[in-house]
Amino acid sequence: MSTIKLLDTTVRDGNQSNWGATGLDTGMMQQIAPVMDRVGFDAIDFTTSTHMAVAVRFKKEDPWERLRLFREATPNTPLSFLTTGMRFISWEAASEELMEFAFRLLVNNGIRRFAVMDPMNNVPAMLNMADLTRKAGGEQIVAALTFTLSPMHDDAHWAEKAKALTETGKFDKLYIKDPGGLISAERAKTLMPAVKAVMGDIPLEFHSHTTIGLASFAYLEAANQGVYSLHTSASSAANGTGQPSMSTTIGNLRDIGHTVDVDDEAVAEMDSYFSVLAQAEGLSARGPGDYDRRYFHHQIPGGVLGTMIRQLQETKREHLLPAVLKEVEKVRAELGYPIMVTPFSQLVATQALLNVTSAERYQVVPDEVTRYVLGRFGTPAMPMDANIEDRLK
């Protein structure tokens, strides 16, 4: 048995997955920040450029001030920024000069850790981003390898990607990011050793979602397989389509013999604070999602699926949901099996919805889908359907 670290996702991914990224304002975060600093987290997943935009649009707050205030209250815990490719705020590709400038501002205002993600797991792009974040002054540069299921994504594929990323020496850690919550305990038992075998001494982290109830079980197996850190949230922001609960995960890990070196009083105080806050603000608190095998086929993240269902309900066409989910499978295959993570999950889901509600498939094509087919987001892992590609170009 080993010592397992925790990374907290409450104010970023928990807030995003279950509270629409708008549940917390700066004052709410600042009030609990000193307690969070006492817990002993390996890091706090704090923000993304999208969250910074949300702070301005929905809260009318300065995201840079939010970062500075939280940083002052958490001097002992690294704050993490998740990058999602060569973009900042907008989904338009940005220059390296702009990205380096943005990263330097983030460092100057309190970010110490950068999690580098690419929606297509493009290794050269991730290595370039690692260089940019390191040059800007990032202390920890972490590769985020985004998990998906497709005919080509077996354990050997993920081991090859992990090796290509970690053998360069550009990353301090690597984490497997499972946005659909698709990794079961059985898959974790083979996947984690395959990835760790090629990483040398670089620590491996695991980030999943409880969308179909698998993550809590996968976390325990991942710990048994030598994972260094698990990503969790305070109980009121956990579960649903977010991460497993921090307190429950701690209890489960200790019960099977692992050590979790945290301040238990601070954990309890943090959990209590967010529970009272969620109740006062009317923020949902949910359990893990029901096991639903359809997710293995369409792989739509919970937030995107919720938006799709709402749109169908608003137009009194919710009876079309089964047909849309089937169409998502077809569209994803035709577009070369993009990983169902932002922005590709939204592109695929939107196109599938339009295909079902239009007179014929691909009669209406959003500009973003056309840009994807033209290669503006990179090259898909597998070839696109030639007929569809020609039609959309």
Q: How would you describe what is shown here?
A:
- This protein is an alpha/beta fold and 393 residues long.
- It is built from 17 helices and eight strands.
- The protein has an eight-stranded parallel β-barrel with strand order 1-2-3-4-5-6-7-8, surrounded by seven helices.
- It starts with a strand and ends with a helix.
User: Largest beta sheet, briefly?
Assistant: 8 strands, parallel, barrel
Radius of gyration: 20 Å
Helix percentage: 40-55%
Strand order of the largest sheet: 1-2-3-4-5-6-7-8
- The count of DSSP E runs of length 2 or more, i.e. the number of strands, is 8
Helix count?
A: 17
Principal-axis shape equals globular
**Arithmetic mean of pLDDT:** 94
Share in β-strands: 5-15%
Spatial gap, N to C terminus: 54 Å
Top keywords for this entry?
single chain; 393 residues; alpha/beta; 8-stranded parallel β-barrel; 17 helices; 8 strands
Provide a concise account of the structure shown.
With 393 residues, this protein is α/β, with parallel strands linked by helices.
Break the fold down into its secondary structure elements and pairings.
Blueprint: E1 5-8, H1 10-19, H2 26-39, E2 43-47, H3 49-59, H4 63-73, E3 79-84, H5 96-109, E4 111-117, H6 123-135, E5 140-146, H7 155-166, E6 173-178, H8 185-196, E7 204-208, H9 215-224, E8 229-232, H10 246-255, H11 264-281, H12 295-298, H13 302-314, H14 321-334, H15 344-357, H16 367-373, H17 386-392
Parallel strand pairs: 1-2, 1-8, 2-3, 3-4, 4-5, 5-6, 6-7, 7-8
Helix pairs in contact: 2-4, 2-11, 7-8, 8-9, 14-15
